[in-house]
Amino acid sequence: MTTRKKIYPWAAALPKNISVSLATLWGLGDLKAPGTWGSAAGVLFYALLFDGIGLGRYLAFAVLLAYLASGICDAAERHLKMRDPGKIILDEFVAVPFCFLPIISNSYSAFGIILGFAFFRLLDIKKPIFINTLQNLDGGLGCVADDIAAALISCLILNALSLAVPSILG
User: Which of 57, 131, 140, 143 fits a disulfide with 127 by CB distance 3.0 to 4.6 angstroms?
Assistant: First the structure.
């Protein structure tokens, strides 16, 4: 049994149309600048479902979604016969809430959300430090891991700013 089958036993059963539709957010990934669209959808998702729910539930929900996204992206990559194609944007979508983990602040202002979005996009595009090596992990894990790393670094930056200038983000 391969590692993929051990990690995502359910993903192998996903039909092509379902895995690709989910991984591209129903075609949003076919637009120009797909990663930006996926990230913007992730910000909306954060605002609707994550804002103010408390750290425990926040983390549980975010980690579960990251696991599911890894399996879905893995299946979509296999169906498309491509490694982390740009049109797969579920990884950005589920990573964005990690930018806004409620460590210092339980809620961010509109400016804080825009700043988090900007930091995330910059780190996701440039892939500095170790982020690029995470993208080289096999299958859906690599597809999602680099985005979550970019989001967590964005979170650290936002929380450092929140400590330095509390009124600016919350």
Answer: 131
Alpha-carbon gap, residue 88 to 121, rounded angstroms: 15
Confidence of residue 7 (pLDDT cuts 50, 70, 90): confident
Q: Find out whether 28 and 89 touch, Cβ atoms under 8 Å.
A: yes
The answer to whether 66 touches 148, Cβ cutoff 8 Å, is yes
Q: Is 55 a domain residue?
A: yes
Which is more confidently placed, 1 or 93? 93
Domain with 60, as residue range(s), is 14-169
Residue 1, pLDDT above cutoff 50: no
Q: Kindly state the average pLDDT of the residues 129-158.
A: 94
Which residues have CB under 8 Å from 160's CB, separation 6+? none
Instruction: Give CA–CA dist 17/1, Å, rounded.
Output: 25
DSSP per-residue codes, the chain:
--HHHHH-TTGGG--HHHHHHHHTTTTGGGSSSHHHHHHHHHHHHIIIIITTS-HHHHHHHHHHHHHHHHHHHHHHHHHHT-SS-TT--HHHHHHHHHHT-SSS-SS--HHHHHHHHHHHHHHHHH-TTTHHHHHTSSHHHHHHHHHHHHHHHHHHHHHHHHHHSHHHH-
